[in-house]
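REQUEST ID: PR-0412
SUBMITTED BY: lab tech R.K.
PRIORITY: routine
TASK: structure prediction, single protein chain
INPUT:
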Amino acid sequence: MPHQQFLDAGRDAWKKYLALTYYAQTHRGRLPANPAAPPSLESQVLDSNWRRVTANGYDFQIDALSRTRKIYGLLAITLSPVRSRTNQARAGVPDRRAGDDGGHYIAARFNGPRASFNHFAQNANFNRGEYRLLEDGWARDLRAGRKVVVDIVPHYSGLSQRPDNTFITWYIDGKKRSKSFPNEATK
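STATUS: complete
OUTPUT:
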């Protein structure tokens, strides 16, 4: 067997072992219907076992890797925003990049929770640029008495802890708007 085929076979066997082990741990020791072809570890982690957390009036769906997968809620301005510098500094580790901030899905000024699930590794230029402008618009709408509802869906590549894109849908007095934001510097 050529060297590369040997390496590929070993890698595939290891992935199958990990997938079977994870499946058994999450299914009370049972094996999948076809143990020779179990669901991939990545599909098991990404597509199931999400938990829901409600904090400060916002709903967060969190996957088995503790990555926030969906955020939904009615925004409200707070008079005394509170941040967690620790969670901001830890956001996205180990996949955080040198040019990243610890950004919020729901900003402190909207009474976003201080918990780690409300933070993500966010490109600093994106955080301080396009994302901030979006939040400023929401704040203006709230001060004008409008109702603002947000639905935020981060996208991750593979098992990364840093989202590569964030799709945001927001409703201002029921009027829907949406935009996809790459987690990169805005141009």
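NOTES: DSSP finds five helices and eight strands in the chain.
REVIEWED BY: pending
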